[in-house]
Write a structure and sequence with these properties.
The complex is a heterodimer of chains A (479) and B (445).
Chain A (H helix, E strand, L loop, with lengths): L44 H12 L22 H7 L8 H4 L8 H18 L3 E3 L5 H18 L7 E5 L5 H8 L3 E5 L9 H7 L4 E7 L11 H10 L3 E6 L11 H4 L3 E4 L19 E3 L11 E4 L5 E4 L15 H37 L15 E4 L1 H4 L5 H10 L6 E2 L8 E4 L7 H20 L1 H6 L11 H7 L6
Parallel strand pairs in A: 2-3, 2-4, 4-5, 5-6
Antiparallel strand pairs in A: 1-7, 6-7, 8-9, 10-12, 11-12
Helix pairs in contact in A: 2-10, 4-10, 5-6, 10-13
Chain B lengths: L7 H11 L28 H13 L6 E2 L12 H7 L2 H4 L11 H18 L3 E2 L6 H16 L3 E5 L4 H13 L3 E5 L8 H7 L4 E8 L10 H9 L3 E6 L17 E5 L15 E5 L12 E5 L5 E5 L6 H4 L12 H38 L5 E2 L8 E5 L4 H10 L2 E2 L2 E2 L10 E5 L6 H16 L1
Parallel strand pairs in B: 1-13, 3-4, 3-5, 5-6, 6-7
Antiparallel strand pairs in B: 2-8, 7-8, 9-10, 11-12, 12-15, 14-15
Classes of the chains: A alpha/beta (479), B alpha/beta (445).
The structure holds pyridoxal-5'-phosphate (PLP).
């Protein structure tokens, strides 16, 4: 399809700019005036609407296709929460920071406050901040809080953060951005971070250990309490990557287990859409004695029941401009409120049931490196198919031809040829059966006609794309 | 309740296939002592009740206040097509385009977005968005440390104080040094900025228009930075790019900014997006996702995520940034906004903002006892000095339905009587005249 710039016709105008009701001003001085024209496309509104409508049709999405992208919790995004999130479109955030302004924005402030309370109860933490704008941003904020804690105790020697090799890439990257060096602990044959190696890695220079639970293999780590105890004995704090919280809603609260900091992804567990890559929202929760290090400002409830914005002087400062991705938070607040206690428990139960169902139906044909009850997702390996020259990517591309968004492939890194399937609770048995049939078909083709898989996809607007060429050409905008 | 479609029969069949007696049995891997001690949430509600509750909350969000406030976030008009197109579920219920063949919609749109950002800022390579304006400035600072292998960043005091707070936090963790240079009145103190640059300096960070609304020429500053092999980072307000010299024209090496004003609703603070763009030679140092053009085996043009070896999922702790999910949908809104207006409309819009602000400047500075603090040119914001404490005046005007501006005292000690006023194309002459009349009233009666 042509680019919008290629559809541009000189002199064509789009939307009309409001008319002026003031005199034209003297022009800006030459030295600060723009010289080159703003080369934006010149298209009419209908052309524009067709262009982006037709572009949208070149996407797979949750509303059009089953999208079992592991680790991403691509559940259905309810329409009523979309509507709820849009109700605050005209509310200027600066109002809340003006003297006396908080009294004008009690509605949105109450949502920030109540969502923080809901998330605190769900995770078992003392307090929550909604400021971080995505999961990775939450991780970084959480590690900055941990750094502030050690510093306040005068414990400045701690310079390492421990992560398991199965952790998401954001974990080590976030800890590094907060100034730490990374120690990676391998996975044991039982599928979790190797406890003995972890014990050996612990010492009084370790600031924190970051765990994902259920881990990125979709397995619940039964040793998490022990890991917390070992870390705490060594004076380190424990960080819980809550990206996979969907599996344990109402079942486990990381705060009860002894974790010090957690982030949750509202765009995964709490039903907010993924936006083609974002926006998300990554609130963090902390236990009692870390509350004072949370970023500024805080939304508090006064004794008279009204809400106010307060500075948080001992905190790590600000990590984003205002109160976080508010319209996303409002959707999550609406989601939690609508589902309620029983609804959220149903979410984790059905998510786990669906994942185990897919795992049971596919394990005859696909290698299951860790054959045990999984939580919200299951991780296979295409290692058997590789013997016929078929890789995880080939299975993925075949799924596209059959109308399914592929699972996550080649992650986690500690499983070769990983195929990570997360159906989520909002899919029906019938949809999953159709997916399973195609996965089995792909396994069959791998044995009988591997070429079919190598050629896929053939039904899409473009076939497999030359990524090496893209990296070499570095053509990232049109001339 | 949880939008779970399976019937009791489905569940029974699935359990049979798994070989489990109950759903509870699937949670057996969780030791009993780790089970939740509490899950104290109220029962759920229906759509109707939910919307009632949410509407009640939305009723108290300052909708009847006329905003003359900015501070990085602006009340601009949004063409109807932006909401309609960005509401297509094929866009908003997709995720990161890891599988390009079934994500060409998102990928091509992001490529067009990157092109738009390059053209607005006068740069050569943009990524596919960052979280927001503040984190974009911080990421640019980190990028300059990587490029120059130095540890000192000079931060101009007329950069948005909220953004400076974020930058300081990001630099602190890495033990990099931030040197703050106080502004000279409403302008960057160019002489002091220039004399602060030395061979240890990674970058100088300035903003245009700055927090006081002033626009300045940074060409000499760029030259001085480059003489020391340091970078110039310019944070800019995209709407101003229709009229004001772009970072590229002024010699910047990295352009960043808050993208909200391009078609994103105010929404009490987000979601918005941050943008970052640079010279082609620094492309490998950019943070976050980048979309590149390529071809398929039949030679057809297509788009993919490219240069991923900079990113966390490959490089882990050596990545250029930890960012994973970004603000794609907001960037898409920005793109559609720009394309809706087009070249001419965008320039007209910028001119209109400027004209309205110049008009407001003249009537407000004519109010008894009120002075204009900016000595040079401004775009759609300017700073007034009032004869009284600005915070008090703002509070009294709020009672009269006017958000008159952002009082500077809380950000710049000693500037308690200063007020930054913002005038977008949405403010009418009547509203501006009314603000002047109310200001006179609050000051003098
Ligand atoms: C396990 C895990 N941790 C962290 C993240 C990072 O979250 P985000 O993409 O919101 O930054 C992800 C998501 O991609 C994840 O799957």
């Amino acid at each position: 399809m042509e680019l919008i710039f290629e559809k541009s016709v000189s002199g064509r105008t789009g939307v009309r700019v409001p008319l002026s009701d003031v005199p034209k001003a003297a022009s800006l001085p030459e030295a600060v005036r723009r010289q080159e024209p703003v080369r934006l496309p010149e298209v009419g509104e209908l052309d524009l609407v067709r262009h982006y409508t037709n572009l949208s049709r070149r996407n797979f999405s949750v509303d059009t296709n089953f999208y079992p992208l592991g680790s991403c919790t691509m559940k259905y995004n309810t329409k009523v929460t979309e509507n709820a999130g849009g109700l605050f479109a005209s509310c200027h955030p600066m109002l809340a920071l003006l003297p006396g302004g908080d009294s004008l924005v009690q509605g949105p402030l109450s949502i920030v406050y109540e969502l923080e309370r809901q998330l605190a109860e769900i995770t078992g933490m003392e307090e929550v901040t909604t400021q971080p704008l995505a999961g990775a941003h939450g991780e970084m904020t959480g590690i900055m809080v941990i750094a502030a804690y050690h510093k306040a105790r005068g414990d400045e020697k701690r310079k390492y953060v421990i992560v398991p090799d199965s952790s998401h890439g954001t974990n080590p990257a976030s800890a590094a951005m907060a100034g730490y060096e990374i120690v990676t602990v391998p996975t044991a044959p039982y599928g979790d971070m190797d406890l003995d190696l972890f014990r050996q890695a612990m010492n009084d220079e370790v600031a924190a250990v970051m765990l994902t639970c259920p881990n990125t293999l979709g397995l619940f780590n039964p040793h998490i309490a022990e890991i917390c105890a070992i870390a705490h004995q060594g004076g380190a704090l424990t960080y819980y990557d809550g990206a996979n919280l969907n599996a344990i809603l109402g079942k486990v609260r990381p705060g009860d287990v002894g974790f010090d900091v957690i982030h949750v992804n509202l765009h995964k567990t709490f039903g907010t859409p993924h936006g083609g890559g974002g926006p998300g929202s990554g609130p963090i929760g902390v236990r009692g004695d870390l509350v004072r290090f949370l970023p500024t400002p805080r939304v508090v409830r006064r004794v008279d029941g009204s809400y106010a914005v307060e500075d948080h002087p001992e905190g790590i400062g600000r990590v984003s401009d205002f109160f976080g991705n508010f319209a996303i938070m409002a959707r999550a607040y609406a989601y939690i409120t609508m589902l309620g206690r029983e609804g959220l428990i149903e979410v984790s139960e059905q998510a786990v049931l669906n994942a185990n169902y897919i795992m049971a139906r596919l394990k005859e044909e696909y290698e299951l490196p860790f054959d045990q009850t999984c939580m919200h997702e299951c991780v296979f390996s295409a290692s058997r198919q590789v013997q016929n020259g078929v890789h995880a990517i080939d299975v993925a591309k075949y799924l596209i031809d059959r109308g399914f968004h592929p699972p996550t492939v080649y992650f986690p890194l500690n499983v070769k040829e990983a195929i990570m399937i997360e159906p989520t609770e909002t899919e029906s048995k019938q949809t999953m059966d159709a997916f399973i049939e195609v996965m089995l078909e792909a396994a069959q083709l791998a044995k009988e006609d591997p070429e079919r898989l190598h050629e896929a996809p053939v039904t899409t607007p473009v076939g497999r794309l030359d990524e090496t060429r893209a990296a070499r050409m570095q053509q990232v905008c049109c001339e | 309740m949880g939008y779970c479609p399976n019937t009791p029969d489905d569940i029974r069949d699935m359990l049979a296939a798994i070989g489990a007696a109950s759903v509870e049995e699937l949670f057996a891997p969780i030791p009993a002592e780790l089970r939740a001690k509490s899950f104290n949430l109220p029962p759920g509600m229906s759509e109707l009740e939910l919307l009632r509750l949410m509407r009640e909350k939305a009723a108290s969000c300052g909708a009847d206040i006329t905003p003359f406030i900015g501070g990085g976030i602006y009340d601009h008009f949004i063409p109807a097509a932006v909401d309609h197109l960005a509401s297509r579920a094929e866009f908003y219920t997709a995720y990161t385009p890891y599988q390009p063949e079934c994500a060409q919609g998102t990928l091509q749109a992001l490529y067009e977005y990157q092109t738009t950002i390059c053209r607005l800022t006068g740069m050569e390579a943009s990524n596919a968005s960052l979280y927001d304006g503040g984190t974009a400035v911080a990421e640019a600072a980190l990028m300059s440390l990587r490029i120059t292998d130095r540890h000192k960043v000079i931060l101009d005091g007329s950069v948005n104080p909220l953004h400076r707070g974020i930058v300081t936090g990001y630099l602190h963790g890495l033990s990099a040094q931030a040197v703050h240079v106080a502004p000279d009145g409403c302008a960057s103190d160019l002489a002091r900025l220039m004399s602060s640059i030395d061979d240890e300096t990674a970058a100088v960070i300035v903003q245009s228009p700055n927090f006081f609304g002033s626009v300045q020429d940074f060409r000499e500053l760029a030259q001085k930075a480059h003489d020391h092999e340091a970078l110039l980072i310019v944070s800019c307000y995209p709407i101003a790019m229709g009229l004001v010299a772009s970072p590229g024209e002024m010699g910047a090496d990295i352009a960043v900014g808050e993208g909200q004003s391009l078609g994103n609703h105010l929404s009490f603070g987000g979601p918005y997006f941050g943008f970052i763009a640079t010279r082609k030679r620094f492309i490998r140092n950019l943070p976050g996702r980048i979309v590149g053009e390529t071809i398929d085996h039949q030679g057809r043009r297509g788009f993919v995520l490219t240069l991923q070896a900079r990113e966390q999922h490959i490089k882990r702790h050596k990545a250029t940034s930890n960012i994973c999910s970004n603000q794609s949908l907001c960037a898409l809104r920005g793109l559609i906004f720009c394309a809706s207006l087009g070249r001419k409309g965008f320039e007209e819009l910028a001119q209109l903002n400027y004209d309205k602000a110049q008009y407001a400047k003249s009537v407000l500075a004519a109010v008894r006892g009120v002075d204009l603090l900016n000595s040079g040119a401004t775009f759609n914001e300017f700073t007034l000095v009032l004869p009284k404490d600005a915070a008090e005046v703002v509070q009294r005007l709020l009672d009269k339905g006017m958000a008159a501006g952002v009082p500077l005292g809380q950000y710049y000690p000693g500037m308690e009587r200063a007020l930054v006023v913002t005038v977008t194309e949405k403010r009418t002459k009547d509203e501006i005249d009314r603000l002047a009349a109310l200001l006179e009233e609050v000051l003098w009666s």
